[in-house]
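Justification of computing resources. Each target in the renewal requires a structure prediction run like the one illustrated here; the chain below, 203 residues long, is used simply to show the kind of job we budget for.
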Amino acid sequence: MFLAEGEDLVSESSEPPRYLFIETEDVRKISTLTTPTGPVGVFPFLDVGAAELLRSRDRIVALHGLQDPGNVGTIIRAAHAFGAGVALSRRSADLYNPKTVRATMGSIFHAPIAREIETAGFLEEASADGFTTIAAVPEAGEPAKSLPDGKFVLVVGAEGSGLPEGVVSACDGVVTIPSQAASLNAAVAASILLYEAYMRVLP
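Resulting structure tokens:
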């Protein structure tokens, strides 16, 4: 189980929490916040398996080695906003880290998320299911408008280390966001690309 802290987070769930702590002393005992400001709900884990994720969304962002929980949570929020699912690789930030949960702003209850995936194996499974696989790279990739209209998996790495060559070469293509900055934060890059894809499938 995991904690959702604060009224806004708790209210995002369509199901009631298994436990709800509202008394000040109880909240202080279990909250991870320095100054707790509201109720704390305890919810069962929400993640799905890789196969279910591939059945549930046509657009998926796969996060390879993203260790910052704020970035992971922000990307989950963007995925929810733009109709995508999320695959978290091994050695990424814990989905249920309190910082990750808070950064989702409640989207953890809405976007389908698989965790602890092995990236290469997930890409193979996605390809077999008819997904195009695209790696986000800092330079020399195709423009964002090249993202396919159909099913695709977008693979995003950490800003500093990026994606390993093995992951990039396993993808069908690469995409780059033109920028005057040396690099873009992973959450910013993923959000831009998910938005670009989302806008092209709107009626």
